[in-house]
């Protein structure tokens, strides 16, 4: 007999000599995880250019952007359907969790976590059951299907082996009952039964650990969501570049040049304008935005007959050239077109409210815009030449508009969002003093938003 | 490469430096993981997760205290997080047992190292963690109670039960081994 010591210090002393090295696969896995993390972090510069490209393409698609919504929605439905059919007919709650998890927005995290969960489950069950029927998966699970299979397998083996043991225990109890007074038989039976009860306890523990793994999957999923929310809270600032498609029509009768031209046909050019904005998330629902937009308008009064209309004396024009020069320029033309071009710098202040937020965020926008006139020019186009004659005498230098918009935002990734906002403008202070133009205007703004 | 330079390079995400750091410390941390896990596979999982945490939070290491100690604390915390499943540790036991559980030195000496490790790994989670933290890594019951979200009494009681279980396992192994030898003779 040696000396007696506390078992803790004895074991500590003994384990100090332990030498072990991890499998080389651990570094490979670690490298994969680190690579995935880096890939997620890097946002290449060319992404900006692609984004601007998307804006232009979006511009040509114009109002038909609704179809983009439909495409996005139908894609999601296809993915869901595919994953649900590939799982087979029956789905346990864990299957559902696993499917949701696999289809979540963080594929790398999910893969690693689920891989680990599946490995742990399969091995725990193997160890605790002492049954040779269980497939042991020491190699890493590569595909989502393999992972799901491993999780399912661990579930089915636990329930299967539980039933088996309950049957054996019952049989042992029957043996005890039928063996009468033979003490040895009774003793052995009790011993066996006790052993089986221990096994049963192990199985219950294994089941409990599988349940814990289920909880763990839910917890990880929740953590991912919380993390995303937290990030949103931590980075309230974002910037966006936008393309604005405006359609400004004169719903009222009347000419912006002269009452004598009220009945003339007016053509309006479809303009693509640009803007930039700075956004700040007040909370998860509300965002305040400001920025600057460069907006221009162009319209032409057609079929002006110089023999009926004296273009040198139009009522609402401040002429910058003398009448003689203009007469000379238009003398050879039988029909003229008078073109007006106006350019504004707009400074909007908006509040955006998110009604429903997910991959596609739906909301509403309300705001005011202050505009400054940058340029205003009137040209006369004859058969052979175009000449600038002056500017409008009735146009305000500045104005104010109120607007409301239907806001939709598509999440491209965690940094980039694509916004489509059909907007109705009401010009509180209109463009010109005669109030000939309609106070209403319709625009579609598309923008690429970058979240810091 | 000097440790400071290595840490600096790891902060920049240099993969070579990360591999070097891994190579330098993998064994010592793996042994730690082995003690806290139930088997080799779990230990490797914990090691993987621990290094991910280490590389992600290496910027936060201010240089106060030993770097190895800092990594060990991360590894232990990762192991606890991996095994901390709701009520696993939080079984309320009111006994406060501080008595030593004595074992014959010759028994422990006679048992192979791997068998002792297996006995530790075979302990239920709540016992294994308290035993490792208290006996092998010198944490106090107060610290353990905070780390595992249990009461100090539960920590003490779990340590006592861990020791009793370990003694039972080691004695059983020793007896079986003696019997086998005598049959062999």
Automatic annotation (TrEMBL), chain A:
It comes from the Bacteria. Keywords: Membrane, Transmembrane, Transmembrane helix. It comes from Nonlabens dokdonensis. This is Outer membrane protein beta-barrel domain-containing protein. The chain crosses the membrane at residues 45-65. Residues 81-107 are annotated as: Disordered.
Automatic annotation (TrEMBL), chain B:
CDD domains: Sigma70_r4. InterPro entries: RNA_pol_sigma-70-like, RNA_pol_sigma-70_dom, RNA_pol_sigma70_r2, RNA_pol_sigma70_r4_t2, RNA_pol_sigma_r2, RNA_pol_sigma_r3/r4-like, WH-like_DNA-bd_sf. One of its GO terms (biological process) is DNA-templated transcription initiation. Keywords: DNA-binding, Sigma factor, Transcription, Transcription regulation. GO terms for molecular function: DNA binding; sigma factor activity. NCBIfam families: sigma70-ECF. This is RNA polymerase subunit sigma-70. It comes from Nonlabens dokdonensis.
